[in-house]
Amino acid sequence: MTKTVDDKAPFGADSPFFRIIKEGLDGLVDGEDYYDLLAEDVVFEYVITVPGYPRRVEGRQGIIDLYSDYGDYIKLRGADNLRVHRDPETSTVVLEYEVHGTSAVTGRPYDNRFVSVVTVKDRKVTHWRDYLDPIAVFDAQGWPADRRS
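User: That's the sequence. What structure does it adopt?
Assistant: Structure tokens below.
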């Protein structure tokens, strides 16, 4: 496999996000960083998300581009509470997990919960359907400005 990003990058081998995803998909996928787990033609669907975020992204490069400035908004310090549900017949894995960090913009805490429905084929992620708590994003980024007044 080839590294897609530096180990210290938000989705690199040392990132809390990559470590929890790699643990959840242990034995099913190969890769040295998060992007390396993805098939070239992977499809991502963001079912519950935030305004301005795409609902669908196609291709590994599309995901790399989407997350390229992630570190400008969120600094992750940890990920935990992993629950893994596997269906070998459909090659589907449901990952429940939490991430923790700080908004790089406001300095507010960022704690979010996710459910990711992941399909694996030939040891690569081919489809990813994501659900998150948008209120956690709003709170961390201070949206709307009067919400915490």
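The chain has a mean pLDDT of 90.
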